[in-house]
Amino acid sequence: MPKPEQNMIRTFDCVIVGAGAAGLMAAIESAKRGRRVLLLEKNSKPGVKILMSGGTRCNLTQNTDTSGIISEFGKEGRFLHSALAAFSNTDLIDYFNQRGVPTKVEPTGKVFPRSDRAKDVLDALVSDAEENNVALNLKEPVHTIEFEDNTFQVHTQHATYRVDRVLITTGGISYPGCGTTGDGYQWCKQFGHSIVETVPALVPLQTPDQSWTRDLQGLTLENVEVSIVNSLQKTLATTRGSTLFTHLGVSGPSAMNISRTVSYSDDSDLSLRINFLPNLNVEQKFSYLKNLLREQAKKQIGTALKGVLPIRVIHVLLEQSKINPASRSAEVSKANIRKLTKALHGLATKVTGTLGFTKAEVTAGGVNLLEIDSKTMESKCQPGLFLAGEILNLDGPIGGYNFTAAFATGFLAGRYL
């Protein structure tokens, strides 16, 4: 590392650390306002997480209004009011449309580039940065950031950059293969910030090896209700949506959206409960099953139920209810129909944890939002220091919400750099 008195470079007005969604957008907006911007990235290419997201399709945002975005972030969502007023999800769509990336809305409300190519999204951002003379230095990780004599000194292996303003957009700890290894947290703590405990979010759940979920490996159910229940049988979180059963447990949007609850819980006896027909209450399920079996009295129960759910699910439900699938429907007692109803309404399995940061799409926790000016993204602990993107204590569900927050907070920070 160069000594402070050597190799000082003052040709830039500001330095942005991290060329992801927030960093690229901030750099573009700042440069458009006449600032000389240096964007530093440790990886050999920018936007690695953009390229990986949405199965390499990049779910940009959600087709909803601003309040719909804010509500999905819970109580922390209020922090996004100013950022989304400056750069809403509609503005985000317009931006990419104008940059030659037409978008489409899928039935789930997810907005993707029409090409289904995340690379088109990244190329649009990088070309815009280049057109606005943003200096993008790749393979140049930041070692330390210091503040002396009213000036920031950003040290890399190549140089020390002296600037008046610094924006940290290094992300969280999720997908460490993307280079998100938590570097930014240490720099923030150095400048007086506190870090809300960081845990994996939007990550698949693990169940025991002997769990019934393993019998459904590879199966996706599009509309089931998934809940996390603690050892006192209190429901901690519930969501509904597509659910994928894997060789390790349960994944898909439904399970991943409630994974942060598992990550934050200190209860060692959590359960995952699945309601396979969430549009019917318990009594409606019972009546439905009773009538169905009565109508097909001569058939084996496994055959009679095959139109209700995939046959593998039916077999699991019957096994967990201790009902022989070869039993004639007419022979199934009311008590056994009750058992089957109970399983259909809320079949449970233990949860042993999540697949951790290596498989997490986002990081829950991060820099305390109370220490950031939400109108400018400037630190309240260190004037001239700005923060945006996933490094903040902001995490939303699957559906483009997290990218929306990253782009919006990056854009707002770029206005004031």
Query: DSSP helix count?
Result: 14
Question: Distance between termini?
Answer: 26 Å
Our estimate of the beta-strand percent is 15-25%
Helicity range of the residues? 25-40%
CATH architecture of the largest domain: 3-Layer(bba) Sandwich
Shape call:
elongated
Q: Would you identify the CATH H-level superfamily of the largest domain?
A: FAD/NAD(P)-binding domain
Strand count: 23
| CATH fold naming of the largest domain | FAD/NAD(P)-binding domain
Structurally, the number of domains stands at 2
Strand order of the largest sheet: 18-17-14-15-16-13-19
| Stretches with pLDDT under 50, minimum 5 residues | 1-5
CATH class of the largest domain, please?
Alpha Beta
Radius of gyration: 25 Å
Walk me through the structure:
With 417 residues, this protein is of the alpha+beta class. It has two domains: 8-200 and 361-416, FAD/NAD(P)-binding domain (3-Layer(bba) Sandwich), CATH 3.50.50; 204-355, HI0933 insert domain-like (Helicase, Ruva Protein, domain 3). The protein contains 14 helices and 23 strands. Strands 18-17-14-15-16-13-19 form a seven-stranded antiparallel β-sheet. Helix 1 (21-32) packs parallel to helix 6 (118-131). Mean pLDDT is 95; it is low at 1-5.
